[in-house]
Design brief:
Layout (H helix, E strand, L loop, with lengths): L1 H18 L3 H9 L2 H20 L5 H19 L2 H48 L1 H99 L3 H97 L3 H23 L2 H29 L3 H9 L1 H9 L7 H29 L1 H9 L1 H9 L1 H27 L8 H9 L4 H6 L7 H16 L1
Length: about 550
């Protein structure tokens, strides 16, 4: 049964390796070519043949063997092109992994070097002040060139605005001229209308006189009609009156119509004058506004041109400073600086080639390493204080230590360190009080001691160092006592005393001398049981 399980296990492994997607490239790579694959295929055929001979009584094994044969037939049909393609895929995957790993290593080295390069450049500038002066001048020149380019663009834009405004002004002035001409024409038309009205009114005076005379004649004929008794004369007078009245009607009607037409023409002419005058005023106002805008543009342009001139002169002066500083710097130093800057450029190029994920990962590693170095440096400064009280306080109060690590400048402040020391002493007093209380609770001897010597408690609180010394003395005394007990047990006359009894004697040292004088006691069960009870009683108390 065990042998069959092992065979099934081996079969599963072979089938798994053939059916797995990840295993296909491995099989292809191991085959290499048709010639090199032949031994491996033959080996697989041999294994399948062995399994076939063992499958007669196992249905699952039969199924596995059938699947293996199918997979093996597939491998046999692979041509060299398929194998080469799979090998190429494997090689590409491996190259990609190597490339990613290489990129990260290169990035890590480059970014680490970046800090060193910065330090080297700072050292060079401190050693050669003219080098720093040249660098600052060069940076200023680059800054001025950018500012000059921007200012030149502003001047060009403002000049274009001024030209456009001048064109707008010319057009507005032409419009004013046209509006003046229109007003002149409207005034001429109005003058003529006034003259027509005046002439019409003059002719109306003459007409009124004629009408009055005609009315007088009509009235005269009417008076004669009343006096005349001659019928024929009456009829003739009536006819004359009728004719005169018709003429009167015509004259009166003509008189009002002509004057009305002339007055209407005069009103229209006045409207045209008003409109033309308003248009002229508006056009003149527009010209004034455009002239003000043009003046403002000219002022702004003049200011920009002055600034541009100033920047250009400043650039020229800075270029002179740069040349002088550069000439004063040794060529060897300039070459070294150029090499450092070339490396910086390569690092920048490498950073551009890296993916954001790679860059972020590497920068994280460096940041962690840098922070670790910084923390180590601050911790060294803390240790350099050589103040056990402060170190103890920082151990108990990690928030203080965290604050110092985040703000290392405080560790260099004497006032702050003194404050920390005072706080540490207060904390030390609290510790002493707690320890005294603990000792009293744990050991009746101490409790009795503090009762007998009440000033001792106060002395320890006021002077924590004396308390520490006292505790150390007690520890030393206990250690000496323990060593003395161990020495006595080691030097027992009877060397055959069991380890258990020796341990019990260490717990009950008052019986060591008794056992040493009477070795047989160590073999008595009652005596040993008594020692055990005493030890248990001490431990329980």
């Amino acid at each position: 049964m065990k042998g069959l399980q092992m065979k099934k296990f081996k079969t599963s492994l072979i089938l798994g390796s053939l059916t797995s997607v990840a295993a296909v490239p491995f099989v292809a790579a191991s085959c290499g070519s048709k010639d090199s694959s032949a031994p491996k295929i033959a080996e697989l055929e041999q294994k399948i043949s062995t399994l076939e001979s063992q499958q007669s009584s196992n249905a699952e094994l039969k199924k596995l063997v059938a699947e293996l044969k199918t997979k093996l037939d597939t491998i046999k049909t692979w041509d060299q092109a398929q194998i080469d393609q799979l090998k190429a895929q494997i090689e590409a995957q491996n190259n990609a992994k190597v490339s990613t790993r290489t990129t990260k290593i290169a990035l890590l080295m480059a970014l680490s070097a970046q800090e060193q390069i910065k330090t080297e450049k700072e050292f060079l500038e401190k050693s050669y002040p003219k080098l720093a002066q040249a660098r600052k001048a060069k940076e200023m020149i680059a800054k001025l060139e950018a500012e000059i380019a921007a200012k030149t663009k502003e001047v060009e834009t403002k000049t274009a605005e001024k030209v456009a405004k001048e064109a707008e002004l010319t057009k507005a002035q032409a419009d004013v001229k046209a509006k003046k001409e229109a007003l002149n024409k409207a005034n001429e038309a109005k003058t003529k209308a006034d003259e027509v009205v005046k002439a019409t009114e003059g002719s109306q005076t003459e007409l009124t006189k004629v009408i009055q005379e005609l009315k007088a004649s009509i009235n005269k004929f009417k008076a004669e009609l009343e006096k005349t008794t001659d019928e024929a004369k009456k009829e003739q007078t009536k006819a004359t009156i009728t004719t005169l009245e018709e003429q009167l009607k015509l004259l009166e009607a003509g008189k009002g119509e002509k004057l009305k037409v002339a007055q209407n023409a005069q009103t229209e002419a006045q409207k045209l004058v008003t409109q033309a005058s308003e248009a002229k005023t508006k056009a003149e106002s527009s010209v004034k506004e455009i002239e003000a805008q043009k003046t403002k543009l000219e002022e702004e342009l003049s200011k920009l041109q002055a600034e541009l001139k100033e920047k250009t002169e400043q650039k020229s002066t800075t270029e002179t400073e740069y040349t002088q500083a550069d000439n004063a710097t040794p060529d060897s130093v300039k070459k070294l600086l150029a090499s450092l800057e070339a490396i910086e450029a390569k690092i920048a190029e490498l950073k551009k080639e890296a993916t954001p994920e790679e860059l972020k990962e590497v920068e994280h590693y460096l940041a962690v390493a840098k922070e670790l170095e910084r923390v180590k440096g601050v911790e060294k400064e803390i240790d350099a204080l050589k103040n056990d009280e402060i170190l103890s306080l920082l151990q108990k109060r990690p928030e203080f230590k965290k604050f110092i690590l985040e703000n290392p400048e405080f560790i260099k402040s004497k006032r702050w360190v003194d404050s920390l020391e005072r706080l540490a002493k207060k904390e030390g007093v609290k510790d002493v009080e707690l320890k005294i209380e603990e000792l009293g609770k744990k050991d009746p001897v101490f409790e009795e001691l503090f009762k007998e010597e009440p000033t001792l408690n106060e002395e320890f609180i006021n002077d924590p160092d004396s308390f520490k010394k006292y505790i150390e003395d007690i520890k030393d005394g206990l250690k000496e006592e323990e060593e003395d007990i161990n020495s006595k047990i080691t030097n027992l006359k009877d060397k055959n005393i069991s380890r258990e009894v020796k341990k019990l004697l260490a717990d009950n040292p008052e019986f060591i001398d008794v056992v040493n004088q009477n070795p047989d006691l160590a073999k008595l069960k009652k005596f040993v049981d008594g020692l055990k009870k005493k030890s248990e009683s001490k431990n329980n108390s």
